[in-house]
């Protein structure tokens, strides 16, 4: 009987100890650690909005985002940071360029400086790792190469890289064009049966469908039967693509200044500039995240282990310090001498990231959009519908909150 009593005391004592340890850990996470970090960052001149227990700075962020989501911008306004990331706007105005904020109990530093961004993104030591997202985000983003770290990432990246070489991409152009021609035929049919021979199309949805179609039919392979018929369409770009496909057999011919190549280069250069400027002002990836895997020196700051660092691309891309007073104007010519010469710092444009984790699909994406635009612009004229509301929003990537209704009119000649 006595023995049982001792065992009971012992078990109860153990349970109390475990409970106390858990309570202390919780206090460390929600109180002491935030307090200690706030003090340590303050000493380095980094301040930020007040931390509230468990919720961090999320409540203020939610309120600001909710209010911003109600705002409709002027169609010509490209100063969209106030709408897509109003909390960063508010906090940087109050606490300066680098500030501390809290995603719940997770500390995070926001930067928008190309020098610091370069240091983080070009790091190969593993000090700035990809954060491990919680299961809610993973269910959207998937657990692909973009989420891996260390040897797993090296292995996945080296397996995927060969799928995106220039020659492989060139071979994909046929399938990309086939998907686009399908979409074009559909638009033409819809315009033909419409009253005024034009049709209003919601472009966001349409392009999501097309992207999905292109990716399943090209990059990741499918048993899609190549529909030779679609290439009867005698469009200029396909001709050029086919002409340059000869590159695979005549090494170096794509560099010869033939009339076809010259026209192609000019077209490509103009389109490139327009696309880069669009990506600068409306970058689909709004911010790039890393997490310090150990205490690390970033510029003049000492960042402890386990802190998120967010590089706010939306702000970096419209910083007047680097892009000039017209930073919020749409001016493709700033890219006339290439990306590295477009601003006062070569890394002020990070639409596809940089360094070892630079976007793997960058060439694929640029090729696709150039091809699709060339095919569309030869066949249709486009006008923004009067129903359009300029409301870019943050849905993990940048999207149009109310879509992009567009009036599409087939051109007579095609
Ligand atoms: C306009 C379209 C696109 C934009 C703006 C874009 C942007 C980006 C950015 C900024 C990163 C770097 C993220 C970081 O540093 O944490 C990235 C990474 C990545 N992108 Fe893209 N991307 C685009 C299209 C694509 C496409 C079409 C694919 C695949 C077919 C792709 C595959 C990837 C992969 C696999 C990574 C992760 C690379 C790694 O962690 O090693 N992207 N992208």
Question: What does this protein look like?
Answer:
By secondary structure, this protein is an alpha+beta fold. It has a domain of 238 residues: Cytochrome P450 (Cytochrome p450). The protein has 14 helices and twelve strands. A hairpin with a 2-residue loop joins strand 1 and strand 2. Helix 8 packs parallel to helix 14. The longest helix has 42 residues. It is elongated, with a radius of gyration of 26 Å. Bound molecules: protoporphyrin IX containing FE. The site of protoporphyrin IX containing FE has 16 residues, from helix 14. It comes from Populus deltoides. Its main location: membrane. Its cofactor is heme. Keywords: Heme, Iron, Membrane, Metal-binding, Monooxygenase, Oxidoreductase, Transmembrane, Transmembrane helix. This is Cytochrome P450.
Which key features would you list for this structure?
single chain, alpha+beta, Cytochrome p450, 14 helices, heme, 13% strand, 414 residues, elongated, five-stranded mixed β-sheet, binds protoporphyrin IX containing FE, transmembrane helix, membrane, 12 strands, three-stranded antiparallel β-sheet
